[in-house]
């Protein structure tokens, strides 16, 4: 009887695990289809980083990327989101540090910041700005058209407001962090309400279950 009960319990456990994995697989497949339908982040961009080096999106193929669009004159939201982005990267790096060279260590992730205000955000301005955030944060700028093209690929909204008496202005823009997989395509995105811990957990899950998006 004990053997029969144990066998039944093992079978039930295996069935539950199968159903759970199948449900997660279907959820991932549905999410992939949704992202493919949105067609976000496809194509390339041609910008310049804060060291003056020409950068294309294809330069980051094979790497995980967390991307944020903003501008250096942003008074509070952009600094908060870039600090969150940096903290997410740090949480993932801390996890890798704890695991060391053991199996299960996560691949590194590249933080990127693309300006929506290229008129003021020159290479030098970005170089000064990114110093306040994660040491591996890359700031990207370029011509107005190149920046707009990069933003359009992710359906980023950006609209400059009227200048004040001193000529300064703010830019109203989307507040989203984008996660790109090693194939360069969008895997997920996170609004302002997501905490750094929630984002880190999501990124970790994507890394653990990664499959290239079908084209």
TrEMBL record:
Disulfide bonds join 74-78. It holds the Pfam family SCO1-SenC. Cu cation binds at residues 74, 78, 173. The keyword Transferase does not apply. The keyword Metal-binding applies. It is a single-pass membrane protein. It comes from the Eukaryota. GO terms for molecular function: metal ion binding. GO terms for biological process: mitochondrial respiratory chain complex IV assembly. Keywords: Copper, Disulfide bond, Metal-binding. GO terms for cellular component: mitochondrial inner membrane. It is found in: Mitochondrion inner membrane. Belongs to the SCO1/2 family. This is SCO2 protein. The gene is Sco2.
